[in-house]
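<context>
A single protein, sequence plus fold
<sample>
Here is the protein in question:
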Amino acid sequence: MDFRRVNVEEEESTEDILQAKFPAPGAAEVQQVTGEVRAQASKGNTRGALQALLAQPPNQAFVDAAMEVLASTRTGDIAGIIKELDRVDGLVRYLFWGMERVGQGKVANGGVVLGWLEKVIEVEGNGSIVRCMTDRRYT
């Protein structure tokens, strides 16, 4: 395909592509995922809980479950857990949503969220934060 001859006005607008959002999960899916996440967390398996959570596209319906897992994790284990995660960008999205909810519901302490964010920067650098902030699918 010769890209110099493509009429970009005939193609989908980039605004539509950038604004595409993930479909909202149904109530049954929310219950299933949060149940699995809480079950893993209650066994002390933080990695398994976060992997189950991050297997889904990030959605605000799962923020409370994510914050429960993050709050129950020992500080010394955080860096090791982050190194093993495949989807750190999704974790950063949950951290940002958690910051929005400090003082409400399950997010009573913003220090937990900031501690995780600090470890993400130490392990992964600023890239996941920049990608999260510029991704328009989650605005």
About this structure: The chain has a mean pLDDT of 83. The chain has one domain: 25-138. Residues 25-138 form a domain with the Serine Threonine Protein Phosphatase 5, Tetratricopeptide repeat fold (CATH 1.25.40.190). DSSP finds eight helices and no strands in the chain.
